[in-house]
Amino acid sequence: MKRMSEDDILEMDSVSETDEGAEAEVDMIDEEIVYPEEFLPTYHSIKEGAKVRITQQAEFNDKPDSLFFNDGVRRIDFILVYEDEDKKEFEKRHTFQRRKRRREYFEASLMKMGMELEATKSVVDEKRMFVKVHMPWDVLCTYAEVLHIKLPIQPNDLASRPSPWRFFSCITKHFYPNEELISKETEYFTAPFEKDRLEYFYIKNPDNFFTPSMRSRMAYYILSRAPYEVRGSHKKFGITKLLDSGVYKAAYPLHDCRFNVKSKDQSCPSERYLLYQEWAHPKSFYKLQPLDLIRKYYGEKIGIYFAWLGFYTVMLAVAAVVGLGCFIYGYKTQETSTWSKEVCDPEIGGNIVMCPQCDRFCNYWRLNSTCEASKKLCIFDNFGTLVFAVFMSVWVTLFLEFWKRYQAELEYEWDTVEFLEQEEPPRPEYEAKCIYERKNPVTGVKEKVPYTTCGRCVRVSLGSGTVLFWIFLILASIVAITVYRLAVFFSFSTRFRNHELKELEPLKEYVTPQMATAVTASLINFIVIMILNMLYERVAIWITDFELPRTKTDYENSLTLKMFLFQFVNYYSSCFYIAFIKGKAVSYPGRPVYLLGKYRNEECDPGGCLIELTTQLSIIMGGKAIWNNIQEVLLPWVKNLISRYCTRVASEKVVPRWEQDYQLQPFSKLGLFYEYLEMVIQFGFVTLFVASFPLAPVLALVNNLFEIRVDAWKITTQFRRVLPEKAQDIGAWQPILQGIAILAVATNAMIIAFTSDMIPRLVYYWSFSVYPYHDHFNNTMEGYINSSLSIFNTSDFSSRSKPIMDNGTTITTCRYRDFRYPPGHPRQYEYNVYYWHVVAAKMAFIIVVEHIVYFTKFILSYLIPDVPYTVKEQIKREKYLTQVILHETNLKLVTKRLRTTDDDTTVTRVEKVELELELDS
After folding, report:
1. DSSP 8-state symbol, 165
2. Radius of gyration over alpha carbons of the chain, in Å?
3. Does 913 have pLDDT greater than 50?
4. For residues 471 and 565, is the Cβ–Cβ distance under 8 A?
């Protein structure tokens, strides 16, 4: 190992540095960098061949669509961008020189690892340099074997089953991408690549054997592990750190052409143009997605996301049709509903005086003032809703089971069946901090780790504590919003009942204090949700970085769990409050329950809190969809517009492909994390609270139809090409979806039991004469309103809650929503028998429905296999061919070689078996 001081390194750079004063200033730096001997020949050869430039420089050849080096032969697999800092101000020279050294060391490391580099100046900014990276054939073969990339060994010879829709091809063909533009790809049996058995792989053209996405993935693997600095025994490496420290401004693979213009280069497949025309363009909104081309261009991780999103959207169409039918049924029956007719009837609802819902300043009110609200409630609270809730519980099971089957098909077609069985390489951030040693329990070999067992426990504990703190912060915000609701309801009630808001008088028939409070509180809650989301997002990323997960999968799973727990509490806590807490602990007017000893607890409308839950869901779902589209579409488009305006060049200049891509927005480091999170939160709204809002699947369907095309348009036109990554499935989101599906059965059953008025109505419908207002077997809903409201004697008001009467009227009794004995009864204001029968009916309903639905889900899960039979056959056939072509062929060659070596020696059966075992090991 040879140690070179800073002065020695600068002496190497003296060919291009003529400022003696600058060199003298840099000589004052006393830090030293250790350069391994193996890198020195590379530096010397570079110095002799091209002065001190690490990469060969070349002028742009005025071919804007070129994806090759200037020689037109070597394909560009990756682009690195930096700014030439030699002419920067003197006081920052130390930082710039350090960046330059790191960059040159890094590029020398890449060349030592077999990659070829070529640098070209920008046509827009002379200080900006683009380093083009090319992987030669030998390097590609080496890293294809390292990454276990599966490549073709033989065309698929198994006959595929005919599609059941083939008889309708004259109609269905219009919903598929244009086959003249996007032809169907040939199916192959594949095997993990082995460099020593190259002749057994199906290679038509070596230039196209490795797809551009494979090449880019292998190039990034090398970039992530190439060192850029060594200090003693400590090595620093990885393009990620260089990007974070400003050594490079960007690193990305190239798009193959402009999205709206097909490449004139005959060797370019113009796949980006085809994706835009047949997938991302608004005119193609009705077409199915070209998933194979998406996977080929962007990699399996992007492909599996769009496959899942498309499948979810198709399944939503079924739920949306049933939900829309349920909504239409409720809308048609709202005028004929006995319950709403009694509320609106001047002789019934008009003669029922309701007790004030706040203390002192709230007035008495007539039940028929909630006529419009009761009609709206009938739209969502009817027997069709019960059927729809059960249907959705079965639907979510079918969705998950059919998705598993579809995912298994994609796993086989995209060669990711055994992806998780291979050892995933550690993250560069993890490897860079490995300073402790431990014995691997599997291999028994000592390996480096970044922390001890105690240190890991400390990291996990601090992370968990931070997550809990933020969850409690959300709950505190819910309490604050609840206090707001109580205070605002008091203000609205006072003004509405006393007619202080004359301008609202025409709206009094449609706007109630409960509705006004619900709408304003929902809007405020949505704003709080968005603010907490932005804050917690940074906290969650910081915590996960601090925990230092070993692999990228571990990192994504850890971050996914943290973000989902937070988002679950953030988005759903207010809905759970309205559904299961509000109006459940209010007692009766003579002894109301107070929050914090000051604010009287909220009560629901006479029809329950279901309409308020529906309002909350519609505002959050709608607001979230609008906000996400603004973030996903408008912001990248505006940023690119500004970038193009600031970097515009003269019309006669030709801008190369790599510089056009540099002007686009970089894709998020977390990739599709936020896209998945958005859809899973929506999935929760669609399933957890669908009993209160049958239109949720309809809204989700409309949103997803836009979401697919918006996401496609965004990554195709506004972002640099996404780094291709391998993925077998949707990762940690799969168990989260299964957990939501299980929870949805319980929440919908409880909404119908406790939030809806369904069970009390059914009990009344089938009740006998043991209850008040019943003289015989009822079997009708007439009189239900009167039976669901208890009587209160106004003389029993406490001094704190007694209303101030300023109109001179005298009211002796009022009504409130509950099942209690009337005044004068020996057990006045205690729960009556009807209440306990309703409670028993609610509990029985929850138990029966949950058991029936869970049993149905279990039967469906058992009957629907996760992997289709045809896929199992193809997997077995592929394994057989891999064994025959790659392994048994070599075994025969070895056996033949042994026989020719010694004609007198006969290889016995036992020896052959031993030889097979040795080869397998």
Report:
1. T
2. 35
3. no
4. yes
For residue 155, the surrounding DSSP H or E stretch is strand 150-155
Can you tell me whether residue 541 is helix, strand or coil? helix
Query: For residue 3, what are its two tokens?
Result: 């140690």
Among the residue ranges 302-306, 353-357, 915-919, the one predicted with the least confidence is 915-919
Q: How far apart are CA 840 and CA 252, in angstroms?
A: 63
For 99, 527, 557, the CA distances from 563, given in Å and listed in that order, are 35, 18, 10
Mean pLDDT of 912-917: 48
Q: What are the distances in angstroms from CA 917 to CA 442, 757, 848?
A: 22, 71, 58
Residue 150 identity: K
H-helix segments, 19-86: 20-26, 40-50
Q: Is the distance from CB of 494 to CB of 362 less than 8 angstroms? A: yes
Q: How far is CA 430 from CA 46, 196, 236, 543, 551, in A?
A: 32, 32, 11, 15, 8
In the chain, domain spans = 2-135+215-254, 302-760, 870-920
Comparing 591 with 136, the larger pLDDT belongs to: 136
Query: Tens digits of per-residue pLDDT, 621-670?
Result: 887 778 777 777 777 888 778 777 776 655 557 788 888 899 888 888 77
CB 712 within 8 A of CB 306: yes
**Sign of torsion, CA 385 386 387 393?**
positive
Highest mean pLDDT among 31-35, 595-599, 695-699, 915-919: 695-699
At residue 314, φ and ψ (nearest 5 deg) are -65, -45
* CA dist., res. 691 & res. 380, Å (int): 8
Residue 633 is classified by DSSP as: I
Which DSSP symbol is given to 15? G
Rounded to an integer, what distance in angstroms lies between the CA atom of residue 504 and that of residue 4? Answer: 83
Mark residue 184 as left, alpha or beta (left: phi above 0; alpha: psi -120 to 50; beta: remaining).
beta
* Cross-strand bridge partners of residue 885: none
Based on the number of CB atoms within 10 Å of its own CB, is 634 exposed (0-12), middle (13-18) or buried (19 or more)? Answer: exposed
Report whether pLDDT(150) > 60. Answer: yes
DSSP letters for 860-873: HHHHS-SS-HHHHH
Asked if 319 contacts 422 with a C-beta cutoff of 8 angstroms, the reply is no
> Whose CA is closest to 121, among 82, 65, 89, 67?
82
CA–CA separation, 908 and 915 (whole Å)? 10
With a CB cutoff of 8 Å and minimum separation 6, the contacts of 517 are 485, 488, 489, 492
Q: How many whole angstroms separate alpha carbon 905 and alpha carbon 589?
A: 105
- Is residue 343 within 8 A of residue 789, CB to CB? The reply is no
Cβ count near 635 (within 10 Å): 12
pLDDT-wise least confident of 110-114, 272-276, 514-518: 514-518
Task: Answer whether 10's CB lies under 8 Å from 27's CB.
Answer: yes
Backbone φ and ψ of 788, nearest 5°:
-90, -5
Which tokens hold the place of 63?
Answer: 């071919």
CA separation for the pair 125, 85 (Å, rounded): 13
Chain mean pLDDT for the chain:
77
What are phi and psi for residue 33, nearest 5 degrees? -120, 140
For 718-767, the pLDDT digits (tens) are: 899 999 888 888 888 999 999 999 999 889 888 888 888 888 888 888 77
**Residue 140, beta-bridge partner list:** none
Q: How far apart are the first and last CA of the chain?
A: 37
Q: What is the pTM of this model?
A: 0.81
Question: Within its chain, how far is the Cα of 623 from the centroid?
Answer: 18
pLDDT band at 47 (very low <50, low <70, confident <90, very high): very low
Token pair for 535: 């804050």
> Quick check: 76 and 252 in contact, CB under 8 A?
no
Helix/strand number for the chain, H first, E second = 31, 19
The predicted pLDDT at position 389 comes to 87
The predicted structure's pLDDT at residue 606 = 62
